Amino acid sequence: MSTDDRFAKQRIADDLEEPVQEAGKLARRLGLTPYPVNYWVVDYDEMNELIAYGGFQQRYPHWRWGMQYDRQQKQGQFLGGKAFEIVNNDDPSHAFLQESNTLADQKAVITHVEAHADFFANNKWFKMFSDGAPRSADGEGRDRGPDAAGMLARHADAIREYMQDPEIERGAVERFVDHVLCLEDNIDQHQPYSPVETAEEHFEDIEGVDVTEQLDELDLSEEVRRQVFDDEWLDAQDDDGEGVSFPAEPDKDVLGFLRKHGMAYDEDAGKAVEMTDWQKDVLEMLRREAYYFAPQKMTKVMNEGWAAYWESLMMTGERFAGDDEFVLYADHMAQVLGSPGLNPYKLGMEIWEYVENTENRREVVERLLRVDGVTWRTFGDVVDFTEVQEHLEPPAWLRDVAGHLDELDPEDPRVDAEGLEAARDGEFDVDRYPWKVLTYEGLAQRHYSLLKPQYRGFVSRVGQEGLERVSRYMFDDARYDSIEEALADVEYTRGWERMREIRESHNDVTFLDEFLTQEFVDDNDYFTYEYTHASGDYRVTSTDHADVKKKLMLNFTNFGKPTVVVEDGNYQNRNELLLTHQYNGVMLDRSQATAVLKRVFELWGRPVNLLTITKEFDDHDIEVAKRRDREPEPEEVGKRLRYDGDEVTIEDVPWSDVEHLAATDIDYNTKPDEWLA
């Protein structure tokens, strides 16, 4: 980097010092508690490199980074896309700002980043996938979060050393990394990371004798142990001839299972041999990284929607974007939210706004149902919703703090007494930073969602079922004589508090499952579409929220990829691996499945099998369906793919072999009850 470049970046950093400090303070005033964030100014090429590396400056040598870098550059050159920022889940977080951004864009990025850092610090899925090692508390007594940059740098150094080792072929390391990366999403994402520390599996025969303990007494080497478990020996352990199967329950952590029980295939010897130490080490490092990045994939909609929501509130609601920056910011925000396809920013922000509105509506409805003469049956007839809106309106001084500075009462819980004194002493520009005079409670009332023009009819839309449900769970028997008296007690912070509760516990699947209601689908014009054999094209098929939910959740369950688990590590008593596809109505791509089997073979060292279900259509049924403009009924058939190191074979299997894999309505939810326990 030239001296001029360094000076240019330093000037930009100096200009951004105040926005960074004030955005952090505003975020905390709004109730966010983010990790501290270190901001770095980078140029276009550096930004593309960071995006390719997943937000970090050092990763292990691999061709995937170059491919992602090239893709990112082409996207900017030919598709008009631009990366404004990237931030990582680390404590402190590190955010990188592109030097070519306008000041309006930089402010938007900074407010967006502060919200991301809050999500990283508070969502339980990120807490579960830390770097695996406890860190000491900081100077304020706060438990430290992950040291991801350090972990990834250590992994990069270790893998680079293996590649440079004269006794290890560099190409062999690269190929092994390819094999593992093919399975990087095949982990148990709903369990915390724990390293694989043992390479043994305990087997018990039908009489309950622990074979592993018997072998321990013989003090055999691990290689000899592996040789012992041949087909003939295993047959002898079971009087029924069924052999020993493991694991006891299907294992979602395919990488962990392969780390524990996998072997390498020696082409010269024509058999499976023990993995080398470097292979075990690399596999475990990449598995650990997969667990670290899992929560980002699990919360894409929630996280991006959360950041977009608070960015918008700060930039527009609190005028963090200056008068001369607002139009440019609004234009760029509209482009982000208007991006085609499944847009996590738009979907996430809309659901967060819906959560806020429904919680605020519930608070208002609860107050109104305590007014004498108002019941859930008479609610729509006796409540004047225009009057409700008038009583919810904030006082003039809350809307225009600078214009009413002399009228503010420092004893009012919505006013920050110290901020008011500083404002009156001229220590800061109140027009620019009115929020410094307000408390969290004051800001909540100032930005109350039900007063926004697009949501002014939200309270009046509550249905009889919703009113009855609210009434049934009202335990406070306080009564009011009038609507005005009831609404004077409204807790304006309730919507934000509910949002923070959800932010702590949910992931995208549970988020969509709980809050994607029929009301939300109708308000935001969501629908499903399918390919139809009858017409040979795609058609809108439903606007029912249950159908929309199923369709969306298929994109987020297991990162939107097929769920494949280990069912048997000694399939048919032949030391073969049996994987099963948890079929949810969507068939596997045959060519991709075949390629994956070949990768798994390299990590198992012996033949690999995969059970799945496919849909088959009769040609005659398709022709009849076209004439009648309806869809043909497919036949679901069980298939077993097998790769033995030489060829892939595919055969039909009895339905009884795959029946336990078949989709049901419950399977579509893909949300185990214990997730929310």
TrEMBL record:
Residues 562-613 form the SpoVR-like C-terminal domain. This is AbrB family transcriptional regulator. InterPro entries: Spore_V_R, SpoVR-like_C, SpoVR_N. It comes from Haloarcula pellucida. Residues 14-362, 491-559 form the SpoVR protein-like N-terminal domain. Pfam families: SpoVR, SpoVR_C. PANTHER family: STAGE V SPORULATION PROTEIN R (PTHR30029). The lineage of its organism: Archaea, Methanobacteriati, Methanobacteriota, Stenosarchaea group, Halobacteria. It comes from the Archaea.
